Amino acid sequence: MLNYLDIELPDDARRLQQRVRRFVEDEALPLIPACFEARRFPTELIPRFAELGLLGGTLPIDGAGLTPLAYGLACQELERGDSGLRSFLSIQSALCMFPIYSYGSEAQRRRYLPEMARGALIGCFGLTEPLHGSDPSAMELTATPDGSGWVLNGTKTWIGNGSVADVAVVWGRTPEGIRGFLVERDRAGCQSRTDDARCGAALAPGFATRDIEDRLSLRAATVSELTFTDCRVPANALLPGAVGLGAALRCLTEARFGIIFGVVGAAMACYETALAYTKQREQFGKPIASFQLTQQKLVDMLTGITQGQLLAVQLGRLKAAGRLRHQQVSLGKRANVAMALDVARTARSMLGANGIRLDYGVMRHAVNLETVYTYEGTHEVHTLAVGRDVTGMAAFG
Fold first, then answer.
1. Which CATH fold would you assign to the domain 11-117?
2. What is the pTM of this model?
3. What is the mean pLDDT of each run of 10 residues along the chain (397 residues)?
4. What is the model's pLDDT at position 186?
5. Model pLDDT for residues 108-131, shown as the tens digit of each residue
6. How high is the pLDDT of residue 3?
7. What's the pLDDT score for residue 65?
8. Quick one: CATH architecture of 123-244?
9. Cβ neighbours for 182, distance < 8 A, ≥ 6 positions apart
10. Domain 246-391 belongs to what topology?
């Protein structure tokens, strides 16, 4: 495994990393190219996520729960396969199970978390709207009390797992401010998830989903739009502790932690492909790995990956100690995604024309990382979040 400085890792974290790497290499990667072309997440792998103990991440569900380092390294290995694999885990664990555990009632925790940990219920997280990405405080989806529950009206977009999810964590504007709700498909009138079915507008009175098909990135994933039209949910759909936008942003911080590790895995995959290719590809009578410019690129790539590993591991240690600040997460997400995208682009160029072929994988990683560069907070927003922290002056609201 790529660990150039022999970074010390706890035995439990290293063992899980090895198990997830075998799963990715033996079971996931054989499916990914076809899934990428078909714009399909391999839902048949969800039971294996559960068997590996990944669903729920660091949450102490049923006495389990991974250490931050173990969870982070699992994210690294999943994204070494494809960003869609790590994104699924981030959504299920950090964006759905985390708010239910942190903000839900005891009845909600009992109702959802055990089944989600088994992969029997899939979740999605509805915050971003068509006109409100970086500024979710301006969200327009409304949740209006009607005496016996709530009525939701509005649209969420770029929602991972959207059309395959059984329960959506939806954020809306109420008369008292922004609150979080749990919206079940069956309760909203939509069919339950199956491996092949998708819920469309005709099947979902009050709650419609539409997959975003024309995307050129994160194609081995499900990415959807959620539309709520007079969608009625009962009073107990409200997450009692999810009060204010800060509750939603705390969920994003949890997800960004996994990204910090995950993109290192994508960079590793690109580096390893470029190294192997340049050692066997001959031009001008010798392997192109013997040329100085190629070696400089490889060393720069390895340096960036090693620095990214060290940053991720340190943030994992801070999280385990309860000392991780969201500004540090912003710094890590910003730095490691930019590094991984640079490594992927460099690897693409080193493979020449073969760099755009699906079977080599580097272009797939590169286009996926273009999305990761933007989602869970854009590169620019994270820059300003860290800038506000170090200067004490806000560049935006």
1. Butyryl-Coa Dehydrogenase, subunit A; domain 1 (1.10.540)
2. 0.93
3. 78 95 98 96 97 94 86 98 98 97 96 95 97 93 93 97 95 96 72 40 63 96 96 94 96 97 98 98 96 98 97 97 97 98 98 96 98 94 95 89
4. 65
5. 999 999 999 999 999 999 999 999
6. 75
7. 87
8. Beta Barrel (2.40)
9. 100, 104, 108, 112, 167, 168, 169, 170, 233, 237, 239
10. Butyryl-CoA Dehydrogenase, subunit A; domain 3 (1.20.140)
- Reported as a single tens digit per residue, the pLDDT across 193-226 is 443 343 333 233 489 999 999 999 999 999 999 9
Please choose, from the candidates 219, 284, 227, the residue with its C-alpha nearest in 3D space to the C-alpha of residue 32. Answer: 219
The position carrying tokens 């964006």 is: 95
Q: Are 40 and 220 in contact (CB under 8 A)?
A: yes
Residues designated as active site: 376
- CATH 1.20.140.10 in the chain, residues? 246-391
